[in-house]
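Notes from the pairing session

We agreed to fold both candidates in a single pass and log them together. This is the raw record for the first candidate, unedited. Please don't reformat it; downstream parsing expects exactly this layout.

Candidate A
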Amino acid sequence: MRIQIKSAEEIRLMREAGLVAAEILDQVCAAAKPGVSTWELDRIARVGIDKHKVKSAFLGYGGYDVPPYPGVLCTSRNHVIVHGIPRKDDVIQDGDVIGIDFGIFKHGFCADTARTVMVGNVSPANRKLVEATEAALETAIALCRVGSRLGDLGSAVQNYAESRGYTVVKQFVGHGTGRQMHEDPQVPNFGVAGSGKRLKQGLVIAVEPMVNAGAPEVEVLDDKWTAVTKDRSMSAHFEHTIAVTDEGPWVLTRPSSSPGKP
């Protein structure tokens, strides 16, 4: 697939999608409390989708030997890295960290975003993991500028995480996004600075560090979606959709952002 460069108007439309995705994710994250099931979080997101008359990017997604995804959210608690399926019997507990991944289409364009929520009395070790993962994403966002290379982003995430004793997941990566949720280029969370394709004005990418407290290896469960740490260590995940503009990075899924002001 050829990398799709977006026009200023297309980026404006993607910004509208990003604002809707952020608003719905805000509501879902606020509801992530002890005793609430991940199925209930999925219901909240579905109500938001209906209210805004947008389309889920996740529901029904699949192909090859992977069954259609049954939810509009991915809800990934504790040692689940990504792609946890919302369930009535998956109930949030005090002290959990839960990654909530959400994507929608509006105006035919995708907005993809994720946060890891700390629920109640989270241990200091788990809090540091979550905070470091979010900070690793910010290091990559700052490099989403014309002329940077994809390896610069991956190197920044990897170096930040590893310098703090964590590992980055290599089996899953970020991606370009636009009229399809997953477009070229792939955006790894590891790499060598100065390598890879250069970022051009109009490129829109979803950057999404997945950081483990233990080893980086992944195990996918029998449902063919839920990805967990092989050693069952804790994991955290953050994601934003970012447009590369002449002014600098524009985080389309962050309401306070503007071109050049992430």
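Candidate B (folded immediately after A)
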Amino acid sequence: MMEKTTKRGTRTGFTTGANSAAAARAAAIGLASGTVPDTVDCTIPNGQAVTFTVNDGRCDGTSAHAMVIKFAGDDPDCTDGAHLTADLRLLPDQPGQVVLKGGFGVGTVTMPGLGLEVGGPAINPVPRRNIEENVRAVAGDLLKTAGIEVIISVPQGVAMAKKTHNARLGIIGGISILGTTGIVRPYSTAAYRASVVQGVEVAVAQGADTVVFTTGGRTEKFVMSELPHLPPAAFVQMGDFLRYALDTTVAQGIKHVVIGGMIGKLTKIAQGETITHANRAEVDTDLLADLAAELGVAQDVCDDIRANETARYAGERMEALGLKEAFHRALATKVVSTLTERYPGKFDLKVLVCDFEGQKIVEYP
């Protein structure tokens, strides 16, 4: 259950993935025990145990149903209030297996570039693992003799998807099940912007001459492993608030800046966006196609990159051509030149690039 007495503007919520995992765990408890609980303690991807209220719990011995209502905190998220629903049934001929599927209101992937199987449900890798782990944690002996099918659905998902960019990304028929930590933080509020400013100020107060900005938990873990000599205070999750992060850096007189990121956010930074949230600006795939062309890539491949909606697609095409490192280095170079032009002589800048598993690709310079 989300605590709702916290001051508005600072309240965090839980991702569609975390809510789906909670619903699936509650339904799995129903399969194992005969009763779906009214509340469930679910382990979300960041390792935190969170108690969720469970609705519509029912089971009949071979199947179970549970639903959790998403609370997005103070993030203006179109999926706030979504009914993340899990329907589980036993699979007698597949012992030990947990089979995850998308039901009504969960989008279907129709185009490459998302790191998901074309034709499969738009359930991202971290939520997939988290859902399965929670089901396995409570299924007990059931999995010794049967498998469990888990169908995640969202009754309002089709309508909610119309407020997203899903269709342009090739996700048809519903929303995506997302979240790398399980927590939703209020990206657009003064409170979150203030936390970025405060992070830089704390780094200065701790005597840091270098500040490292990341867009989230996965990139922060990556850069921390790359820069173990820096104190924890030097690392600041800027989220989508690049402008506030760098303006504060200049105001505080910090001379060394590192930005850690993946291809999507780095592309937005390279193209000159200072607020990099998905709803604020589209990825400039023309920029990525031009970088590919500069590396001598064939025109038809560049045209495909230009026509696709995602930066990830460009990265996948470059990797297939053996140009993964060269391409990402070119992107990092563009990030440096864009920001140096905006903040001339204010700080030196290094860019560290990782893949979607948090593994290093390149750094520049």
